[in-house]
Amino acid sequence: MRLALLALAGSLAAGQAALAQQRDCLGFGDLTAELAIGTVTAGPRAYFLRGDRASPDCPAETPACQERAYLVPSDQVILGGASAPGFACALYVNPRGLARAGWLPEAAVARQPPGPAGVPEDWLGEWRGGPEHRISIRRGPRPGTLRIEGEATYGAQDPDRVRRGAVNMGEIAAEVGPKGPLLGFTMGMGGTQPYEAGEPTDCRARLRLLGPWLLAEDNGACGGMNVSFSGAYRRAPPNPGGKSR
Question: How confident is the model at residue 5 (pLDDT cuts 50, 70, 90)?
Fold first, then answer.
């Protein structure tokens, strides 16, 4: 697959790891901001471009700004975050939940509205954001609610940290009703609370549906050091041998 090139450049990272491959293009940014879905239309390859951290002349369609990583026609991306004249800040997430953010020429991407979403059935499933992040969403016990459970780690893919017992872990759990394609909650002592409630040190998270992705952001208080659920998730394929939920 063409994204194998991302590994050569070290730019294919877990969805919840640093989306900041470039300081000026961080992917989708704030979940409450205006986001769009983009479909790559240029071919045969649409290369990611370096940002101004690499050179004040970037992004630009020049050999000096071009990276090894590229997309092909029909690939879908999330558009949002930073902007530069003639270029779009794009986040690509592969089927395994691994993500890559960077600049693409605006002419190489067709924008489209996200479409209707947000009824409880749209949220259901097992969502993966790379090898260290999982969010499970099921129907809640009350009509119109969802039961959300998630696990995240930091260092579980590092053999040395595993050997030393230095893997940090975190979790989220909530019962909440979505408001269209967005929901938020705080994990308080008394159970699930509204997003704006609770103490600053409580775990606070938002989730948003956008096309085939589940986007997440938290306040950094949902687990051990460096553990975060923030990032983009893809719905995991059904397990043929498992039971449906």
Answer: very low
- pTM: predicted TM-score of the whole model, two decimal places: 0.81
Out of 3.30.565.10, 2.30.30.40, 3.30.429.10, 2.60.40.3140, select the CATH number for domain 4-112.
2.30.30.40
Cα 58 from Cα 66, distance rounded (Å): 9
What token pair was written down for 195? 């997003």
Q: What is the 3-state secondary structure (H, E, C) of 208-220?
A: EEECCEEEEEECC
What confidence category does residue 120 fall into, taking pLDDT thresholds of 50, 70 and 90?
confident
Give strand ranges (E) for 94-202. Answer: 98-105, 109-112, 125-128, 133-139, 146-154, 168-176, 182-188, 191-193
